[in-house]
Amino acid sequence: MTTATSQDVLAGLAEILDEVAGTPVDKVVPGAAFGDDLEIDSLTMVEVVVACEERFNVRIPDEALEALRTVGDAVALITASVPA
Fold it and tell me: Under 8 Å CB-to-CB from 71, ≥6 apart: which residues?
């Protein structure tokens, strides 16, 4: 069995943000806010979430999406949700 580490999820999220929004990988750090720091709008965020769900085989409920403010929030949620 393999489990995704926080570093794995961070790296995968950085790739997704680069592909979906053109966000430079080096800007994707745990403390970065999606809106203020990375300029990710709500529509783009939905695309990011769908890509994360597919890549990490997780389900991110809409109510959880509203609470995702930073990259660190997303990494924690995805890491906790990845099937063992």
Answer: 10, 13, 28, 29, 30, 31, 32, 34, 38
Q: Return d(Cα 38, Cα 82) in angstroms, integer.
A: 24
What is the pTM for the complete model shown? 0.91
Domains and CATH numbers, the chain: 6-81 (1.10.1200.10)
Per-residue model confidence as pLDDT tens digits over 28-73: 999 999 999 999 999 999 999 999 999 999 999 989 988 899 999 9
Name, in order, each residue with C-beta under 8 angstroms of 11's C-beta and a sequence gap of 6 or more. Answer: none
Q: How much of the chain is in helix, strand and coil states, percent to nearest 5? A: 60, 0, 35
Identity of residue 11:
A
